[in-house]
Specification:
Layout (H helix, E strand, L loop, with lengths): L2 H29 L5 H17 L6 H17 L1
Helix pairs in contact: 2-3
């Protein structure tokens, strides 16, 4: 085997090794670690409730404050 074939094999090995990590890395980047179904439901409920009162584009700061308060109250129930 020449050097180019060895480099190609090493490259393919690295790519295939990293492909197994991509789902975990993407999930961590987008939404943090895995959430339970209960916590995901709380996030969805608070998101829907907050969207009724505030527009995320125009009132982002108020939207996040209301959303955080909703999460705190729902998680403590």
């Amino acid at each position: 085997m020449n050097k180019q074939n060895i480099k190609l094999l090493c490259f393919l090995f690295v790519i295939f090794s990293l492909m197994g990590c991509m789902n975990t890395a993407t999930r961590l980047w987008n939404s943090g670690p895995y959430m339970s179904d209960e916590k995901r439901k709380i996030y969805d409920i608070c998101d829907d409730e907050t969207d009724k009162f505030y527009s995320e584009e125009n009132q982002r700061e108020l939207w996040y404050k209301f959303w955080n308060e909703c999460l705190k109250t729902k998680e403590n129930q």
